[in-house]
Amino acid sequence: MKSDLTQRFPFLVNEVARLYGRHFDQLAREEIGLSRAQCRLLGVLARQGGPLSQSALAERLDLSTMAVTSLCDRMEASGWIRRAACDNDRRVNYIHLEACAEKALDSALLISDSIQTRVMTGFDKAERQQLLAFLRRVHENLLALPSPGSSK
Does residue 130 belong to any structural domain of this protein? Predict the structure, then answer.
């Protein structure tokens, strides 16, 4: 059954993420005027609890520095974020959330919750908790793996 990719964990996880992301992106654009990538950027900044440099943001989002610069350009022009130069290194810009971004992030989380409710239809509470526990364990195991190309 080599051709039945739905039986392969990495394929299934990526396919679920792709479809979930597509639905989220469409609803977020319609309801709050932000793309999934923009919502992710807001989420990373909010989770950090303070500003991040553009390069650190790129690393956390797994995007190129150029892609994050472009994303920040659009978001700054729309008033979601602001850039502030580092006092010690003018080449470094720190990204700060604007107050309106908090409300947008709350809306994004509600959109995500509504999709989650629909895609978890048919799962009872214990099954939902178990699925999330399994995925958290996989996540922890992936974080514990040596980086590709490392000598470990």
Answer: yes
